[in-house]
Amino acid sequence: MDTIVPSTSGVYCKEWATPVDSAPLPSATFLTGYMVTLTVSALILGISIRMLRRESLRALLRDAGVALKKVQQTSKEIERKTFHLAGLLVPLIYQVLLQYGFTQDFCVRIVWSITIVGCTADMMRIHVPFVQRNWPLKSILREKEQGQLCGGFYFALGCTLTIHFFEPVIAMTSIIYLVMGDMTAALVGRSFGKSIVALGIGPEGKKSVEGSTAMFAVCVVFGCSIFSQVHLREYAVILASLAATLVEVYEPFGINDNVSIPVLASVALTFGFARTYKCEPARSPLSWGR
Questions:
Q1: Contacts for 186 with CB less than 8 Å, ≥ 6 apart
Q2: N or C of the chain: less Cβ packing under 10 Å?
Q3: Which helix (H) or strand (E) holds 182?
């Protein structure tokens, strides 16, 4: 039962989590193990898919129930999205650096440097014909990215802003939301979109309820598993999962969702945990990086 107690500042507030209810926060070792397990598993899966012949992949999709008219598009989307699994290396490396004593400020300087270098290289791809012809990843670029900054730059920028402005575990979780949630939305949407709910959602109705529902579910699962020992984790996790899903669907203000998903998911997680641990902020996940 919730109780009203005075906080350390003398302001009365509702106590959502009592010392009896609250379990110890996960250790740095737990987070590192979690990130290693997730990243290695995802990369093995991605490499295995990339090694499949295109005909074999399409046969698997047909066996999984994907409509024949969607098999070819889904196959191409899988080939693109499996490369995005490499994005899980960002939270993994971040956590490993923190565990081995590197500061958050040091990590921030690294990610800003990488983002600036990446932006410079991408600008050269757009404006320098030699670089454009020999760009190593041009096969996975969307048609609309040929003459503009690619999704990789926006991904780097989103990760950088999140790492810069938010607590480490919040940033890591939000980046996982971006990588795994966005990938799930795309693949489920391509495979089964509008097959159950015919109504399209988002701008011009291009998004599907099936894809968005899958993204929300995946984000909730990852959020609850990362914060598995945090009392009332569901409040912040569901709030952030909903925020990430809505951003993926509507892309507010026209901002690329590789930037807006991790940033707004981090805002939602921060708000959620700040609210549930208002009386005793020292036990909040927001204090993990301190």
A1: 77, 81, 211
A2: N
A3: helix 182-192
Q: Tell me whether residue 141 is exposed, middle or buried, using C-beta atoms within 10 angstroms of its C-beta: 0 to 12, 13 to 18, 19 or more.
A: middle
* Cα 225 → chain centroid: 14
Q: CA–CA separation, 156 vs 114, rounded Å?
A: 8
- Contact between 240 and 272 under an 8 Å Cβ cutoff? The reply is yes
For 198, the domain range is 24-279
| Distance separating the N- and C-terminal Cα atoms of the chain | 30
**Among 236, 244, 290, CA closest to 265:** 244
Tokens representing 117 are 């270098």
Partners of 5 in beta bridges? 13
**Residue 9 covered by a domain:** no
- What pLDDT, in 10s, does the model give residues 127-148? 888 877 877 766 667 777 677 8
C-alpha to C-alpha distance for 282 and 10, rounded to whole angstroms: 16
Residue with tokens 């650096």: 97
Split into its structural domains, the chain has a count of 1
